[in-house]
């Protein structure tokens, strides 16, 4: 569903909260990757495996329904359209990776993971690095947009 609503202060706070939760998830994934193979925190592993897909889903839906349409309308440039398309493509890849991570961590907890610990570690690291880069790119685009619209920037301060 697309909306004509412009991003307001509450929306930016929601986006910031989503980003903070994602960065927290990244820290947890990094902690798990660092703990492989001998010091795995089962509670953290279970928590991450249960949280990764819903958190990615919630954040991506918010961005695609509100953030991206507003960015596209406000910026109205070819570069912005290409950036939004890139971010949407990253969403698809991140969603698939999140599902794979959830399944892998659950298999690891059950003692039936067929992947080596090195492979699992690389999988976790690849995912959290991509998520961090995605958040940085979105933040840069938003900052650029609001820098060009002082009246919106002032309303959000």
TrEMBL record:
Residue ranges of every copy of the Hemerythrin-like domain listed in the record: 12-139
Pfam family for this entry, one: Hemerythrin
InterPro entries: Hemerythrin-like
Protein name as annotated: Hemerythrin domain-containing protein
